[in-house]
């Protein structure tokens, strides 16, 4: 994706050169669990743009707890979940977000042309942040 965007969307890909960006292309679950103890309060936001079955099985409470530790006070996690056709996945991810220490979890409804709508994402945070 990075190389393709550099080639075909160079006006957007300039963001990859921003010194504030830390782009990691690796196993995010393993990285978060491994790095969380040494990187508390590091990130303002975590974005998980991974959807669809069979990914429901890879998420764990330990992973979400690691993400929660790495967020600064006021930080947020946003994750694509699914459309309403798969309510079990939505319920499962809600429990993982809450079990990982996110006290506020809000559903964000998204209209999109490439998935049946409404598509749902979770915006999760601690109590210090009021998620819309």
What would a concise description of this structure say?
The chain is built from five helices and four strands.
Describe what this molecule looks like in 3D.
There is one protein chain. With 132 residues, the chain is α+β, with helices and mostly antiparallel strands. The chain contains five helices and four strands, in the order αααβαβαββ. It has helices at 2-8, 10-13, 28-35, 61-70, 87-99, and strands at residues 43-48, 71-83, 104-110, 119-125. The protein has a four-stranded mixed beta sheet with strand order 1-2-4-3.
SSE blueprint:
Elements: H1 2-8, H2 10-13, H3 28-35, E1 43-48, H4 61-70, E2 71-83, H5 87-99, E3 104-110, E4 119-125
Parallel strand pairs: 1-2
Antiparallel strand pairs: 2-4, 3-4
Helix pairs in contact: 3-4
Largest sheet: 4 strands, mixed
Q: In oligomeric terms, what are we looking at?
A: single chain
The count of strands amounts to 4
| Class per helix and strand makeup | alpha+beta
State Rg: 16 Å
Helix-strand topology string: HHHEHEHEE
Outline the low-pLDDT stretches.
none
Form type: globular
| Beta-strand residue percentage | 25-35%
- Count helical runs: 5
Round the mean pLDDT to the nearest integer and report it: 87
Q: Percent range for helical residues?
A: 25-40%
Cross-sheet strand order for the largest sheet: 1-2-4-3
